[in-house]
Write a structure and sequence with these properties.
binds flavin-adenine dinucleotide, FAD binding, DNA Cyclobutane Dipyrimidine Photolyase, subunit A, domain 3, Cryptochr/Photolyase_FAD-bd, 2 domains, two-stranded parallel ribbon, DNA_photolyase_N, Crypto/Photolyase_FAD-like_sf, binds adenosine-5'-triphosphate, alpha/beta, deoxyribodipyrimidine photo-lyase activity, about 10% strand, globular, Rossmann fold
């Protein structure tokens, strides 16, 4: 059933972008967790990610490309004619198999990116902006960088505005391309586009002179070759078909770790040219050309889009700051660039290959040290792979209210409550600070994402898809598989059959922001309070919008964290048939 007909997109949502939101809103458990960036604590200014000068970034990028340039003789170009590379979420040169296959099979490559208006429309159920201004800006920077890196290799990037299913076939016809190479996607919106491109390529077959009429037209058609390339483990190397993917992550992980191996990165020759003769390559668009208002990050992390920045961040985090060796103890932090890798925005747009990260981890283990932390980055990347493969198994159930398990929960779609969550005005500093960070920077820590997800679905009882769609709008690292996969887990409708993951705000605050530095950073009005009061500010802050479903657990033990004093009436969370509850 298509719920679109039942739920009208609320007007306020269709109009509200992250920028207007910022405007409207103006009114470790261990020591490692609290030892977040001293700079972030001291100055509410912008922190660039990566924190490298342009010269350093250029140098790192060149050195990395040199290491990954194929030695002569390894790869031979033996094709004829023109091949098109249709760039999608693979905005990189390094370890790009589509680019490599196009080079091998042709005399000239035409690299193309389509600025697809569908990506700047609205989300499926609740009509929120599908791509917010900050992610649009990140993509624009990524395209600028890709163009530059292709030019360095004797090519260029053609940028066309319109639907790929129209542009790609007409370019194939104009350039008489024999093949279009692109990376395979897995969710239905993207797969639909792949099917339309294939169909339209068939329709554009020029008539063959003397054709008898009974020859299959497809013999002459440009082929669309879809290549798998976004995961660490290649789909063809899995020890099972995606349809029989284990329902439990640990089983998946143990199985691939013991039975599959990770392929080497693809090495490309130094020069990929020449391109075919092109009259007009087209320009990288401005945010405003995409129907969005330009937004500037004025506080928190500012991520720079593009492959060069991605390689720069790997260098910065692994080699310059030497943080890989402590990743496992810092990864649950919330403030500043350095508690975790921050690779996700570049992974989601394909500026960074997970196989390259794997090879860098192995190099680090050889040259510096190998420990639980170095392994744990790979452990997390296997989660990412898992959600990608699960999206094939689950299909559109991933996006449905009942999720893959088809759980029947009568969710609320209360707009006022949802707006309070989205704007960071719930009265709970930990929620509000995280939501403000998301709207202002396009990023939120994994810890924060789990907490705000639990609060929305379990304390507010709101439809998890509203939260997932708001994340879809705002996140720089938005990826349908990881986003909807994690939300279905958080909402208790995912594969994870046994657990009802409730995140207790007092407990999370105490464990992950014990000094209240994170909340004071995003809610400066709390900084004047004593540290132990910042998570329970009382009258000087907004009144909590709902009572917590399971307020306070004995284990956290501090009566100063009591939230109950001014809270609203307990919310009927409308949940039926939950599994075991675990409080985090
Ligand atoms: C409700 C919710 C929504 C999320 N939506 C997205 C999303 O749209 N896109 C996205 O990339 N991640 C998503 N995540 C996963 C995770 O929060 C981010 O990948 C992580 O915070 C990115 O920061 P990092 O690169 O510093 O991660 P690190 O801790 O440094 O981890 C390294 C890499 O491992 C992968 N990874 C880590 N945790 C997860 C995870 N739980 N699921 C999948 N991959 C993971 C990411 O690629 C990440 O870059 C979501 C998590 C939750 C709870
Ligand atoms: N990449 C993506 N990002 C966000 N949502 C996606 C993506 N790919 C698919 N979806 C969502 O998948 C869902 C598909 O909805 P649904 O299962 O109702 O399918 P349909 O094609 O609309 O109709 P039906 O399958 O019932 O014929 C929609 O919510 C759609 O937006």
């Amino acid at each position: 059933m298509n719920l679109n007909v039942m739920i009208k997109p609320p007007l306020s949502l269709t109009k509200l972008t992250a920028s207007s939101l910022t405007f409207h809103c103006k009114f470790s458990k261990t020591n490692m967790h609290s030892s977040f960036s001293a700079r972030a604590r001291a100055t509410p200014t912008v922190q660039n990610v990566p924190e490298l000068t342009p010269e350093e970034m250029e140098r790192v990028c060149e050195q990395t490309f040199q290491r990954y340039t194929s030695v002569s003789g390894l790869a031979k170009r033996k094709g004829k004619g023109v091949a098109i590379v249709w760039f999608r979420n693979d905005l990189r040169v390094l370890d790009n198999e589509a680019l490599f296959r196009a080079w091998v099979s042709s005399e000239a490559i035409l690299p193309v990116y389509c600025v697809d208006p569908t990506l700047f429309g609205t989300t499926h159920f609740f009509g929120m902006p599908k791509t917010g201004a900050l992610r649009a800006q990140f993509i624009i920077e990524s395209l600028t960088d890709l163009k530059r890196n292709l030019v360095k290799r004797g090519l260029d990037l053609m940028i066309q505005h319109g639907k790929p299913e129209e542009i790609i076939p007409s370019l194939a016809k104009a350039f008489k391309a024999h093949t279009v190479y692109a990376h395979k996607e897995t969710c239905s919106e993207e797969v639909k586009v792949e099917k339309m491109v294939t169909r339209n390529l068939l329709e554009f077959v020029p008539p063959i002179s003397g054709e008898l009429g009974n020859e299959p037209r497809s013999t002459n058609a440009t082929k669309l070759e879809l290549i798998w390339g976004g995961t660490m483990y290649h789909i063809d190397d899995l020890p099972f078909d995606c349809e029989s993917l284990p329902d439990v992550y640990t089983q998946f992980r143990k199985s691939v770790e013991s039975k599959s191996r990770i392929r080497n990165c693809i090495r490309l020759p130094a020069s990929l040219g020449p391109p075919p003769e092109v009259g007009e390559w087209g320009c990288v668009p401005q945010v405003t050309e995409l129907g969005l208002q330009s937004e500037k990050v004025s506080k928190g992390m500012k991520f720079m889009g593009g492959e060069s920045a991605a390689l720069g961040r790997v260098h910065d985090y692994f080699w310059k700051k030497d943080l890989l060796k402590v990743y496992k103890v810092t990864r649950n932090g919330m403030l500043g660039p350095d508690y975790s890798t921050k690779f996700s925005p570049w992974l989601a747009s394909g500026c960074l290959s997970p196989r390259f990260i794997y090879e860098e981890v192995k190099r680090y283990e050889k040259e510096r040290q190998s420990n639980d932390s170095t392994y744990w980055v790979l452990f997390e990347l296997i989660w990412r792979d898992y959600f990608r493969f699960l999206s094939i198994k689950q299909g559109n159930l991933l996006f449905h209210a009942g999720g893959p398990r088809k759980v029947d929960i009568n969710w609320s779609q209360d707009q006022t409550m949802f707006d309070a969550w989205r704007r960071g005005q719930t009265g709970y500093p930990l929620i509000d600070a995280n939501m403000k960070e998301l709207a202002s920077t396009g990023f939120m820590s994994n810890r924060g994402r789990q907490i705000v997800c639990s609060f929305l679905v379990r304390d507010m009882g709101i439809d998890w898809r509203m939260g997932a769609e708001w994340f879809e709008t705002c996140l720089l690292d938005y990826d349908p598989c990881s986003n909807y996969g994690n939300w279905t887990y958080g909402a208790g409708v995912g594969n994870d059959p046994r657990e009802d993951r409730y995140f207790s705000i007092p407990k999370q605050a105490q464990n992950y922001d014990p000094e209240g530095e994170f909340v004071a950073y995003w809610l400066p009005e709390l900084r004047a309070l004593p540290r132990e009061k910042r998570h329970s500010p009382g009258m000087m802050y907004l009144k909590p919008i709902v009572a917590l479903k399971h307020g306070y657990t004995k284990k956290t033990g501090d009566s100063k964290m009591a939230f109950a004093s001014r809270r609203a009436k307990p919310e009927d969370n409308r949940r039926k048939g939950q599994g075991d509850r675990r409080t985090y």
